[in-house]
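Quick illustration, no need to memorize.
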Amino acid sequence: MSILGGYISVFNAIIGKKRKLLNVFYDKERFDKVFSSKYHLSEKKQYAELKKICEKYHIRPIYKNKEFFENISSSCGGIAAEFSEREFTDIIDLLNKPSPYLVYLEGIEDPFNFGYVIRSLYLSGCDGVILPKRNFFTSDDIVVRSSAGTSELLDISLCDDISEYYDTIKNNNIRIICTGKEGSISMYDADLKKPLLLVIGGERRGISKTFSQFADCVIEIPYGRNSNISLSASSASSILAFEVFRNNQG
């Protein structure tokens, strides 16, 4: 079971249908304050939307004290929900999507950064993400909040050995594009048209050799000055993700 805090996280987890909704919790003091005031219109709309959802799922909201929500997050706004564990997409279903833009993420070592990366990928139009089986979904609430709930909307698959699916990738004409330095070209000179699998590594560990041997192309982000400093994983991922988006316009 997982408890997610905040309206956006809860709402996107519900509409994403990757988890089963079990319970909805309200901060009683905040709820009463909102509805006893002529202000707080945005929060009233949130409660109205959640009321419809609760009725649909035959769930009665449970009122809790402020301490309950502080144990979840200081910024959840008096709204939380309990869900079953997240369900992941079968990798074959992901690879068989028509002309997909997919991303494999590895080596990102912080759940907040991981959530920020997921948010950028979602907003850039990514069709699905592949993760190692050891990933940050053990820190559900942090990932969902830092991704603004987009982690619940993206199809995500788990896979430790992508080489097992190399034939499927090639049969579907999906090119593997890795980030790196050795043998790389500028991302501005690369063909980033779909279908493709973009492989993004973390700041410290980078990309495993498994991907390097299968890569159709290695790209790097050109910097404005010579430096041994690298962009953060979340910044680099945003730049790469929206360059893929740009390449696929028109």
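The chain has a mean pLDDT of 90.
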